[in-house]
Each structure stands twice: as C-alpha cells, then as structure tokens.
Amino acid sequence: MTPPSEHGSARQRRASSIVVAIDGPAASGKSSTAHWVAERLSYRHIDSGAVYRAATAATMHSQRSPEWWTDAIVLASAASIALRERGDSFEPVFAGVPMEDMIRGLDVTQNVSRVARMPAVRLWVNDKVRAAADGFDVVADGRDIGTVVFPDADLKIFLVADSWERARRRLTQRLSRRPTDAEIAVETELLVQRDARDAMQTMQAKDAVLIDTTYLTQEEQVERIVALAQAVTQRASDTSPR
Ligand code: DC
C-alpha cells in the first residue's frame, strides 16, 4: 500500500483541472456546502479557513499572549503544520497530530481573525492551499478564494445569508436543539462583530455567482452549485480540442 503523502492522492492527477471557489461571510455555510458539493462532484475539498485556524492553534501552543503575536511568531509556530490527506479532503496535522478538535475551539475562533490579518501568514496559507489543489479538481472555500487564491477559478460562488439566519443555523448545529430568540440575538451580535473584523478579507469576486441561502435548504444550495459546476465542465469539454 502506498503511504499517504502530504499532498498525495490515490486520485489521478490531471493536466487541466477544475477549480470551484466558494466564498462568503462567517457562518454562511461555505465549508459544509463546499464539502457536499465536492462529494457530489467527486472533487477534493479544501477548507482554507481550517489552515488559518491551524496556524492560530499552533501559535496558542507557544504560550505567548495573542497581543504579542507577529507574522514571524505565527509562521515559526506554524512551521510544523502539514496538510494531510483525509478521504477526499485535507486535515491539518501539527507535529503529526491531527488538529481538527483544537481548531474548532472557542479560543481559536476568538483569535483567528488576528492571524488572518497578517500578510505573511496569508501568503503562507495561500501557498499551502494551492499546493494541495495542484493538479486536482477541487472545491475550495474561504474569504479570498475567488479573488486572491484562485482568481482564475472556473466557477466562483459567493454565499450570503441574513445574519439572524446564519446565527440560528450556527447555534442549532452547536447546541443540537432549537435555539431561543434570545440566544439567536446574542449570537447575531457576535456574528456582526466578526463580520466587521473579517471585512477586509471578505471580498466578492466580480465574476462570482451570488447565492442568497437565507430561504434555501442545504440540499437546495448544494444542488444549485453542482448544476452550475456541471454546466462549466460541460462547456470546458465542448470547447477543448479533440
Ligand atoms: O471560515 P472559518 O471561520 O473557518 O475561517 C477562520 C478565519 O480565517 C476567519 O477569521 C476568516 C479567515 N479566513 C480568511 O481570512 N481567508 C480565508 N481564505 C479563509 C478564512
């Protein structure tokens, strides 16, 4: 059996590959939608936010107070991070240890915007994401995926949803029950603050298809994106030289 390499895959590398880029604000459902779209299309899923989170978790490990973090400190802490293949996706591992549980914690969520604003860290994440995508059909999600990381993506989607609805979805997932209006109101306030902190990084590409998911189910939004991606791949195969 061939051992999994950092960016290796049992899938065939392709000379010409398709990139579907999904952007949107916090809790717009980017990552879960990207995951399902990738599964439906048998593409790889790359969650770039998970790489920012991994860099944040690794820096927390250094025990330095977040106010003192600089690009150089974060990059030094993140040097032991690798993206390891897991199924049709990737997971960050730190010194060989999977980071999935650490990167979803509240302390990481509270500090990740600070790390995501650091220009040198953004370059480092973008390199990792591009290397993981190289030669494969991918669905990649994140704030600047369609503008900076893959400006030539074959299909760009920008997901939006009303902040109350995003807060409601996030809480339902976190609490595994129906949240009260008071709980949603508190979460909405936090989301609006986070949108403001991440505003610089959240850019809608001019050629992105805007999908407002406020009144769509997860299945409906996935179906729309799959249909758009299939139209793009059909057009690419119609126009490619035989
Ligand atoms: O999508 P998320 O909550 O996992 O993203 C974590 C943080 O990383 C959030 O502050 C937005 C930021 N991010 C970014 O600036 N650019 C990306 N391509 C992906 C995420």
SSE map:
Elements: E1 19-23, H1 30-41, E2 44-47, H2 48-61, H3 71-78, E3 81-86, E4 89-94, E5 97-98, H4 100-103, H5 106-116, H6 119-133, E6 138-141, H7 145-149, E7 155-160, H8 163-175, H9 181-197, E8 209-212, H10 218-239
The structure holds 2'-deoxycytidine-5'-monophosphate.
Explain this structure.
- With 242 residues, the chain is α/β, with parallel strands linked by helices.
- The chain has one domain (19-229): P-loop containing nucleotide triphosphate hydrolases (Rossmann fold), CATH 3.40.50.300.
- It is 50% helix and 15% strand.
- The chain has ten helices and eight strands.
- The protein has helices at 30-41, 48-61, 71-78, 100-103, 106-116, 119-133, 145-149, 163-175, 181-197, 218-239, and strands spanning 19-23, 44-47, 81-86, 89-94, 97-98, 138-141, 155-160, 209-212.
- Strands 2-6-1-7-8 form a five-stranded parallel beta sheet, with helices on both faces. A three-stranded antiparallel beta sheet has the order 3-4-5, covered by helices on one side.
- Strand 3 and strand 4 form a beta hairpin.
- Helix 2 packs across helix 3 (71-78) and helix 2 packs across helix 6.
- The longest helix has 22 residues, at 218-239.
- It is globular, with a radius of gyration of 18 Å.
- It starts with 18 loop residues before the first strand and ends with a helix.
- 2'-deoxycytidine-5'-monophosphate is lined by residues 26, 48-49, 52-53, 112-113, 116, 142-145, 198, 201.
- 2'-deoxycytidine-5'-monophosphate (DC) is lined by residues 26, 48-49, 52-53, 112-113, 116, 142-145, 198, 201.
